[in-house]
Amino acid sequence: MKLSVVVITKNEEDRITACLESVKWADEIVVVDNGSEDKTLTIAKIYTDKMFQVDLLDLPAGRQDFSGIRNFAIEKTSGDWVLFVDADERVLESLKTEIEVTISLSDYSAYAISRRNIIFGTEVKYGPFWPDWVIRLLKKSDFDRWIGKVHEYPKFKGKLGYSKNSLLHLTH
């Protein structure tokens, strides 16, 4: 099974290198940029030639939001599975290994992945910050579309699984 990773960016030059380093093991990295005015795209070119620039206003009516960008992005992938990672997130080795095994053996259509939230340098494990599940690993053949203007989520057919390992989320 082939894995594509999607990273959506806007002025992420300070964080993009660490993010892309953490996913460079994937079969394909797709970067969709929403108007960066810094060196984000120059840095991303080191890791992938699959880069696209999109302006929210250029998207079709009704798709001019984060879901619209994510839907645009998944159309640019060629993998059987797609992992969405934000520029302030990192895929640690334990999650990488789990994903590699999961996509080769799974009968699920999508996976929710917990996030270890680091806020001002401290890991926070209370309230909404833990386990902070986000559905980010999707079997492309079962995917329908992303929904929601903010705090978007994917619609898909089939079963949802849950990862044992977490994304590292460096929030502030």
Outline the structure in words.
By secondary structure, this protein is α/β, with parallel strands linked by helices. The chain has helices at 16-23, 40-44, 66-75, 93-105; strands at residues 3-9, 28-33, 51-53, 81-84, 89-91, 110-119, 122-123, 134-139, 143-147, 153-156, 160-170. The strands form two sheets. Strands 1, 2, 3, 4, 5, 6, 7, 8 and 11 form a nine-stranded mixed sheet that branches. A two-stranded antiparallel ribbon has the order 9-10.
Q: Could you name the key traits of this structure?
A:
nine-stranded mixed sheet; alpha/beta; 172 residues
What is the topology?
Layout: E1 3-9, H1 16-23, E2 28-33, H2 40-44, E3 51-53, H3 66-75, E4 81-84, E5 89-91, H4 93-105, E6 110-119, E7 122-123, E8 134-139, E9 143-147, E10 153-156, E11 160-170
Parallel strand pairs: 1-2, 1-4, 2-3, 6-11
Antiparallel strand pairs: 4-8, 5-11, 6-7, 6-8, 9-10
Question: What's this model, at a glance?
Answer:
With 172 residues, this protein is α/β, with parallel strands linked by helices.
Radius of gyration: 15 Å
Spatial shape: globular
Give me the number of helical elements.
4
Which range best describes the helical content: under 10%, 10-25%, 25-40%, 40-55%, 55-70% or over 70%? 10-25%
- Determine the N-to-C terminus distance: 35 Å
